[in-house]
Amino acid sequence: MRTDDFDYELPTGLISQHPAEPRDACRLLVLERASGMIEHRSFRDLPEYLRAGDVLVVNETRVLPARLLGAKDETGGAAEVLLLRPRYEDTWECLVKPGRRLKPGARIVFGDGLLSGLVVDVLEESGGRLVRFTTQSGTFMEAVHALGEVPLPPYITARLDDPELYQTVFAAEEHSVAAPTAGLHFTTEMLDALQKAGVHLAKVELDVGLDTFRPVSVDDPAEHHIHTEHYRVPSYTAEAVNAARERGSRVIAVGTTSVRALESAFNEATGRVEASEGLTDLFILPGFSFGAVDAMVTNFHVPRSTLLMMVSAFAGRDQIMHAYRTAVAEKYRFLSFGDAMLIV
Asked: Can you state the angle between helices 317-329 and 306-315, rounded to 10 degrees?
């Protein structure tokens, strides 16, 4: 298995710059794993593929306004800080641009001094910085909400007028620097209709980091280092998933992040999903044995990415690459604001 096995030609014009409006107006490619059959539908048709008793699992994490624009205190030069994850009180692991010359002791100022950040360490393993923040007044998170922007992936160059379009309708606590984008297609009306039809809605949390989307640069994907992300599977979700599997119903994960959370909580010894919370570095490659998930709603992913490798593990590399070639030929919209795929 080589990283090149998960490469494909993605025309720039197919990278969607804007979300579908309304949310469920996007297209849906349906791939049946057993037969390899492909159908072209609308996302509004998704309820036709779900049955009473099925459990739909979504990632309820919300995206932080994690992009902070400031200036270097010594030179006044522009600096951009992206909050990645908290390490301890008001101290975060960050990506800083330009960061090459920012050593411990460097200070960055935001919003006319409302917020400042002191670089306290250089993280050699990631190239990031450990930054301790102080505010003139209020809390750190209040300052972040006053000054920060929702960070969009670099391949989205168009301005997003309404930041809520990059949040799911079921988003709760802010922990992520990127949206669980498969969930962006759902409306509250669709979720209500599914529950009235007997589909159970359950939630997990996985704090989405940038490494989730980063292309694999090594030739052998098994040598790729995937960073840890915090996840939480509450007891009611574990119970709903286990009960569904016991009665022969299906567990449909919305997005690769939901898959990662559920499979991280799956206990092979007992064959059950356990309520759990912690850090996961689970890297799902072809050959992985799925224990918790029966079907998946996902978007179309970046070439050579860990996400493309995960869906290939779920449906088979040849079938996924054929589906992607078909989607390119049919001019589906790709990546975060693109169309959706249902794998059953």
From this structure: 110
What separation, in Å, do the N-terminal and C-terminal C-alpha atoms of the chain show? 24
For 148, list phi and psi in degrees, rounded to 5: -80, 165
Query: Are the C-beta atoms of 55 and 250 separated by less than 8 Å?
Result: yes
Tens digit of pLDDT per residue, the chain (344 long)? 899 999 999 999 999 999 999 999 999 999 999 999 999 999 999 999 999 999 999 999 999 999 999 999 888 889 999 998 888 889 999 989 886 778 899 999 998 888 999 999 888 766 789 999 999 888 999 999 999 999 998 899 988 889 899 999 999 999 898 999 999 999 999 999 999 999 999 999 999 886 665 678 888 888 887 878 899 999 999 999 999 999 999 999 999 999 999 999 999 999 999 999 999 999 999 999 999 999 999 999 999 999 999 999 999 999 999 999 999 999 999 999 999 999 99
Q: Which residue, of 147, 176, 202, is where some domain finishes?
A: 147
Q: Which residues pair with 119 in a beta bridge?
A: 131
Rounded Cα distance, 145 and 161, in Å: 17
Question: Is residue 156 one of the residues assigned to a domain?
Answer: no
Strand 55-59 and strand 200-206: the pairing is parallel
Q: What is the DSSP letter of 216?
A: P
Q: Choose the final residue of a domain: 147, 180, 213.
A: 147
- Is residue 55 domain-shared with residue 72, that is, in the same domain? no
Q: Does 324 reside within a domain?
A: yes
